[in-house]
Amino acid sequence: MYNETTDFNPFALDGGGGLDPNKLPRDPAKGGALVYPHNYLRVNTIFDVIKASGRRTAWSDKHIADEMIQGPSGQGVDDLYLLEINATNSYGVSTTKSLDVTEIFDDMKVQAILNQINGLDHTGSNPVGVPAIFGMNFQAISVAQRLLVNKTITGAIATGASAGPGGYVDGAGTPSQLLINALHHTDTSIGQILTALRSSALLDSTYIILTAKHGQSPIDPTKLTLVGNTNIPNLIDPAIVRVLQTSGDTAEMLWLQDQTKTAAAVSVLLNSQITNSVQDIWANDILKLHFPDPLVDPRTPDIIALGKPGTIYVSASAKDKVGEHGGFSDQDVNVPIVVSNPQLSPQTINTPVTTAQIAPTILTLLGLNPFSLQAVLIEQTKVLPGFDPAQATVSPPFTPAKLSSIVHLANGQTQFELAVDGVLSFTIQASTNLTNWSSIGTNSLAVGGSTVITDPQAPSFTNRFYRAVESP
């Protein structure tokens, strides 16, 4: 819903001047008020929290509709630079049909970051100071993973290995030449950002987080199966139930007009699983194991048809792709998270995490309370391993102290274990807001030792955070 289709002109880099109110949904509960993307959010964002702390915020992304990142206030980002990935260039070449055009698209956003590192706004015209948070999304790798045929800037088919296909050449994940080109270009862009941070003496004080919203599937090109994206919804006779809306690429999501007919619709789909390359169907109780009940939350589809590995549901005009995302396979949802700072000791953490943990981690690194995020309170989202307040305050090269085995005693007190590797004396501190800390005790431990600590004041507080600080 919130993509290029809501632009005044979906083929213009600036969306033709922004979002077209006539293409936006309206809220009947509010007298038909327009629902802009940022209005659609139910909770605040890290940009809301960081800006409220008095710091400058900036971001760049791939759709005009990504103004959603502003948060419910609509004002969370001071310097928001949005370009339309669906745009065509002066030769009429769509950005996503040409790796070269996509790399130019990414280069504009990289230049915006370089300007911000130099204390300017994204245009490079106005001195505004360096933001506390800024970043962008790269599109080149995603496009190279999906392209069947690659075009040049002028619209001609590229030559040699650069012509495509993109994606991978085997099930082991060996990248195609087109994907190698995209990886090299993106790597160079990141290098430019690091060089600029170093030149501005900002590298040591900047945490760089590199991750992805999604993966692409299939990796193995022999598993690719293209199915028309109207096949599944068209199976359901409107006399049984009307399908109001569909969405999906590697899975088909269906919203029904009469939700009491969900079981009948599922029965129809089950009879055509094989011909439409459907692996599983989620609905009713199975669906509610993964998402909110669609009877309560209309944002949840009534039915999700999960494609078999390698299946992509495509429109008649979009059969020129070798990869997509949108489903729940490992290749769709498993992505890396890299956190870099010169003071961090290199290590690989194999603990399963989610990208949702990045937001509270960013706030923690900025000295802000992660519980300022409403979603963190609702879902009890943890920071990434190794970056909890207790560990983040211990300076390398020492191994951080570990606070673990937290127990809430029957009398309301909190008990936990402090373990150390090489430092002998620690002061244990507590806080309610991750800003103001008070000492609750000092412990001297032998190397590799541990001790149990009890906080008798814990019953007096709703939230209580702890950290171990090396004593002089």
Mean model confidence by pLDDT: 90
Number of domains: 3
> Which sequence of SSEs, written as H and E, runs from N to C?
EEHHEEHHHEEHEEHEHEEHEHHHEEEEEE
Beta content comes to: 15-25%
How does this structure look, described?
A hairpin with a 5-residue loop joins strand 13 and strand 14. The chain has 12 helices and 18 strands. It starts with 25 loop residues before the first strand and ends with a strand. Strands 7-8-10-9 form a 4-stranded antiparallel beta sheet. The protein has 3 domains: 203 residues, no CATH class; 93 residues, Gyrase A, domain 2 (2-Layer Sandwich); 85 residues, Immunoglobulin-like (Sandwich), CATH 2.60.40. With 472 residues, it is α+β, with helices and mostly antiparallel strands. 21% of the residues lie in helices and 18% in strands. Helix 3 packs parallel to helix 5 and helix 4 packs antiparallel against helix 5.
